[in-house]
Design goal:
This protein has 100 residues and is α+β, with helices and mostly antiparallel strands. 43% of the residues lie in helices and 12% in strands. The termini are far apart.
Length: 100
């Protein structure tokens, strides 16, 4: 008789998980995470939070507006560093720092 080994979809759970909200899945590296979103925010955003959101929007727009020459320069600099795992993340961090 053959041994039945079930497929392990989720290797670990973390955080608070409840039964009354939608499930989300996220994969980081080789690990699949799932969870449920509970207790959604009901209070309005503070001025600091709104300022951070606007800075993030401006940075995203600046990354999209980069020219080919600028992207090539970022690619060269990206290859010489170890902190960021993706070129887009590196470009975003550099553009975000310019707005500070």
């Amino acid at each position: 008789m053959a041994k039945y080994v079930p497929i392990e979809m989720v290797k670990s759970y973390s955080g608070k998980i409840c039964e009354h909200s939608d499930v989300y899945f996220a994969k980081k590296g080789g690990t699949l995470y799932t969870g449920k979103i509970c207790n959604l925010r009901t209070k309005p955003f503070s001025e600091q939070e709104l300022a951070r959101q606007e800075k993030f929007r401006q940075t995203a727009a600046a990354v999209k507006a980069l020219t080919e020459e600028q992207v090539t320069a970022y690619e060269t600099a990206f290859k010489n560093q170890k902190k960021y795992g993706s070129l887009r993340g590196y470009m975003f961090a550099q553009e975000y720092a310019k707005l500070a």
